[in-house]
């Protein structure tokens, strides 16, 4: 998709993920044992593969979007794979229906975890202030590092290692 977008000189790609997709993604990641990073909401904006990816509909439910499209006289195409239980997302969608928990609840939890992730990242940056690199080693100021919440160190390292 990124290649196609670049070939057509697009500045950004808008994705159709909805609030329901947020909830399904949360459950998929929860089933894998994800932590704060993985359980955080799908980003509404991210840059990857030389493209800007936007998700403008993550606050809108799937049925709400379909109702709006119908009122506007705009059709849509349902991907037949959306009914194929061989796909994890479809199984999670069905699990959500069986649980009877509103997708908004999962999406809210994901957004709350995204806020927690951001706070942990800020703590990690403050904790690492004054760090020095010498002979290929990273020396962190000891007292701020010891005083920081344990998870902030993991966030610091995951960000540094990811680039």
Automatic annotation (TrEMBL):
Q: Which reaction does it catalyse?
A: cytidine(34) in tRNA(Ile2) + L-lysine + ATP = lysidine(34) in tRNA(Ile2) + AMP + diphosphate + H(+)
Keywords attached to this entry:
ATP-binding, Ligase, Nucleotide-binding, tRNA processing
UniProt keyword Protein transport present: no
One Pfam entry for this protein is: ATP_bind_3
> What's its top-level EC category?
ligase
Q: Which SUPFAM superfamilies match?
A: Adenine nucleotide alpha hydrolases-like
* Name of the molecule in the record: tRNA(Ile)-lysidine synthetase
Q: Does the keyword Ligase apply?
A: yes
PANTHER family this protein is in?
A: TRNA(ILE)-LYSIDINE SYNTHASE-RELATED
What residues does the tRNA(Ile)-lysidine/2-thiocytidine synthase N-terminal domain cover? 4-94
| UniProt superkingdom | Bacteria
Q: What is its EC number?
A: 6.3.4.19
